[in-house]
Amino acid sequence: MLRGRDIISVNDLSRRDFEKIFEAADEILKAPERWSAVLKGRIMATAFFEPSTRTRLSFHTAMLRLGGEVIDLGETEKSSIAKGENLSDTIRMLDSYSDVIVIRHRLEGAAKLAAEIAEKPVINAGDGSRNHPTQAMIDLYAIRRFHERIDGLTIGVLGDLKYGRATNSFIAALTKFRIERLYLISPPQLRVRDDTRELLVEAGVEFREVERLEGVMGELDVLYASRIQRERFPDPSEYEMVRGSYVITGESLRSAKDSLAILHPLPRVDEISFEVDSTSYAKYFEQAALGVPVRMALLKLILMG
Ligand code: NCD
Fold this sequence. Notes:
Blueprint: H1 15-30, E1 43-48, H2 54-65, E2 69-72, H3 87-97, E3 100-105, H4 110-117, E4 122-127, H5 133-147, E5 154-158, H6 165-174, E6 181-185, H7 194-203, E7 207-210, E8 222-225, H8 236-242, E9 261-263, H9 284-289, H10 291-304
Helix pairs in contact: 1-10, 2-10, 3-4, 5-6
Bound molecules: N-carbamoyl-L-aspartate (NCD).
């Protein structure tokens, strides 16, 4: 079902695809030693043309934990990109050296282009401000672990809904499930993209766009916070107008349900204050740790079925 497939956007994935990945991740967490050689002899190539900590390192860790090997393009200043090599030629080479390619790029569409060139499966590790499908897998898996379900929950997504590929992919992935209600919480300038809003309408998800967190906090089972994507603003003065729009503090959590789970794709800047880290609501570091079993599950299913 997932074997040999490119993973470019959550829109290409069915609910069943997500569930297959979640079930494999459950098995991995239960008995990691059984998975330690399943990708022996396989090579994953990573090409990150934009900064990354968690995504790059958890992909590497996942491949190594499965017994596979990793080659990394490294910093673009040190590879032939610095000599003017184009993306297609770089991908063509990686395709001949490896069994699966993981790419991150500043430009929306770069992963799709790579998938058209490469014969081997391509996994999008984030391109532009629209797609970050493996982050969405981790986010939904984290919710499933913390709440034991996704269906029936009330979820708030807070922050940069316009430029955030993590938020847009998360929202798109939610349309595969039957959540109770979705609150999209953002400044007016950073409201969700039209194409994402259309997905919600098509899927019949009950959603509301609001500006303030206070009014909805008490209803939420999950609060997905995100960083304002400074580097994607065409005009720096536009960023200055919205920076620091939201800061979640102990005070803002006073009306929260006991079972509220706060998620964040990380890195955070100033939208969650440090005092929240020690509360039972803070699930973002556990969420980041789940990046390894989820990416292990995905790599295994793509390379071996
Ligand atoms: C996200 C990204 O790169 O889109 N980071 C991640 O992969 N965890 C979120 C962000 O940079 O804000």
